[in-house]
Amino acid sequence: MIYFTYEKNPSSLINDGFCYTFNSKGARKSKGTDFNLKIPILFNQKEGDRPNIIQSFNYKLDDNAFSFNILIKPNEIGKVTKTDITELIGSKDIKNMIPQNANFIKATAIYIEECNGYKIEYTQEIERLDIKLDVHFYFYMIFDKDYLYGFTFGHNNTDTLHTKRYQPLITSIMNTFVLNTNY
Q: Model pTM?
């Protein structure tokens, strides 16, 4: 029943309360961070496969390969201002932050939980052994005084319907980010 209700509008899962709260404090690789993020109940959760990826989530309603990862790193840059982000986005350096074979779409400044950051959108054909995927990525980087929070969302890029379906879901998930150390 839940599949038919939310198949075309998965972002409503959070608004309708079909979600749980992920807290980084209990995650093994969280590096002492303390933030919350609401995750729709239709996502499988597992520990990340790479050193700085604390969690990975996969959407289990369809085969469009929609998933996301949470990355945590210590902030060795220091305070990042809105001006720093604006200058980065305006420079050619922003395109160097995506894989070489990726197609840059756009970058925008973001501000959430009193932290500056950016969002980069790009597409990339990924090949691993005999598997080829065309993926649409949304990468969010949030700069706190102590940590860098990275959120990488990706979905199958076979048609624009997926982008129209998943972009609101990504925005809904990111808007639930709460940095508990601010309160």
A: 0.91
